Amino acid sequence: MKSVANTTITFGKVVAPVKLFSAASTTTDPKPKYCGPEGQEVSQVYRLKDDPDTIIGPRSECSKIFNGRLVDEAEIKAAEAASLIEEINGEEVNLKETMLIQRFVPLSKVPFNRATSAYYLGADPKRGGLEELALIHKALAKKKAAGVAKFVVRGRQKEFVIYAQGNALYAVALSFASDWNEPNEDVTLHSKITVDKALVDMATKLIDADLDKDGEILDDLTDTLIERKVALLNAGEPIEVNETKAPSAGESLADALAASLESKVNA
């Protein structure tokens, strides 16, 4: 597993060098590339919208419009460098170089529904700090707390929560509050619907029939879609997509639940 960034965690006056490792891997996902009709290589070009015959160079050579004005690459880089610096607790901090834990929250209060990506925080033996990292891990685990910090990874500033689980230290990126949409009436419409208690009881029995109290099923989840895609692409055969039939809308909730429970009993 290759690290995606090197940084340090600042925990009060305790500083621990760490490496970030992506907790999710997509290396098994085949990504077909565009090619000519006989497999020739192709390249991407940019054309002027109002003058398609005029071809512009690579994307890096294009200008950008920011707040209605053109900006060149040098100005963009200067702005990006300045944006990495924030003043925290009266000190200037380069958010690309350190994960400075600004505050702590109970782990139960972390809004994991806003999570966008997850990383492992591993020791960097070449730079030391193994004991400091162990201290941070044990303290967070004992208090069942998460540290809140900002950090720049892959060119984007993100808000992270750092917490301990088992033998690993995790850093989970969250979308910023300003980027988060609160649920509207369409999203919460179902909460206003009254459901018969007997139906709810039947539904809970269906959950109990498949309840994995230890959550072990999460350890064995596989992406069957990728597995099928790999097999089809490797076979080199035409790929056909069959339409799936939607479940019958005419079936009552009671009948659907009863049939579901019967299938569990007879399984």
Give a written overview of the molecule.
- The protein is extended.
- The chain is 25% helix and 31% strand.
- By secondary structure, the protein is of the alpha+beta class.
- The strands form four sheets. An eight-stranded mixed β-sheet has the order 9-1-2-11-14-13-12-10, covered by helices on one side.
- It folds into two domains: 3-28 and 80-179, Beta Barrel (Ku70, Chain: A, Domain 2), CATH 2.40.290.10; 194-239 and 248-266, no CATH class.
Short structural summary:
The chain has 267 residues and is α+β, with helices and mostly antiparallel strands.
Q: Please list the strands of the largest sheet in the order they lie side by side.
A: 9-1-2-11-14-13-12-10
How many individual domains? 2
What value does the Rg take, in angstroms?
26 Å
Average pLDDT rating: 85
Which architecture of the largest domain does the CATH hierarchy give at level 2?
Beta Barrel
Secondary structure category: alpha+beta
Question: Per DSSP, what share of the residues sits in E-state strands of 2 or more residues?
Answer: 25-35%
Distance between termini?
A: 41 Å
Q: Helical segment tally?
A: 6
Given the C-alpha coordinates, what overall shape results?
Answer: extended
How would a crystallographer describe the biggest sheet?
A: 8 strands, mixed
**CATH class of the largest domain, please?**
Mainly Beta
Care to count the β-strands? 14
Q: What's the order of the H and E elements?
A: EEEEEEHEEEEEHEEEHHHH
CATH topology of the largest domain: Ku70, Chain: A, Domain 2
* Proportion of helical residues: 25-40%
